[in-house]
Amino acid sequence: MDAKSANLFQILSEELRMAVDAQSIRKHFSAGDALFREGSYIGSAAIVAEGVVKIFRVDEDGSSHFLYFLSSGELCVLSALCCMRMRKADMRAVAYTDCEVMFIPSPYPEVWMQEYPEWNRYLLQSFNLRMSELLDTFDSVIFRHLDERLLYYLLQHYNTGGERLYLSHQQIADELNSSREVISRLLKKLEDSGFVEVNRSFVRILPSITKSIQAK
Fold first, then answer.
1. Which one of 18, 131, 146, 197 is at 20 to 30 Å from 26 when CA atoms are compared?
2. So what's the pLDDT on residue 5?
């Protein structure tokens, strides 16, 4: 997939789409690979061309906390900020599925802000989208009980990555800052309620989970 075919790129001019394709460095990542890690210098703004990427915040103890997904055509705004400010990353990006990512090296992300008004619109749209998702995550952590947070977490995966969640109970617990035993118990309750099917290697998220979220 080239830049032209990604949804968010529809707001970019043909000239700028060609510039993105020409200047970006494309890399392939397998599911589970890290695009970049906390503490590393990021010299490029990352845009997902194909696949899905998960963004995590890492605390001082090394625990990672899931923030949001990036899908095809979406810019990692945190990487863009680090690139333009020449600072170390304070987050981790991991390929959720096999994916292809375009890395736009400095100074192009900042130069294009002066040359292309639509690049600024694309940046602002990306910032607004991520801010909305971060507020949803904040609300989930602060105002929801763990069972509701798990439902919201599963719905995010269902809407972005499909019905199969290939994570262990321990991995889900780590991302929700809980324990494996608690998550296993909650998943069993959701299975009994008809919202998921728990298998040995994955959790199948059923369409009925959307109705559960709407009812809350």
1. 131
2. 38
207 cis-preceded (ω within 30 degrees of 0): no
Domain with residues 142-210, CATH architecture: Orthogonal Bundle (1.10)
**Domain ranges in the chain with CATH number 1.10.10.10:** 142-210
| Whether the Cβ atoms of residue 31 and residue 95 lie closer than 8 Å to each other | yes
Domain boundaries for CATH 2.60.120.10 within the chain: 8-115
Q: What is the pTM of this model?
A: 0.71
| Residues contacting 107, CB < 8 A, separation 6+ | none
Q: What is the pLDDT of residue 13?
A: 87
Rounded to the nearest 10 degrees, what angle do helices 77-85 and 108-115 cross at? 100
For 66-89, the pLDDT digits (tens) are: 888 898 889 998 899 888 888 888
pLDDT tens figures, 164-196: 999 899 999 988 888 899 999 999 999 999 999
CATH architecture of 8-115: Sandwich (2.60)
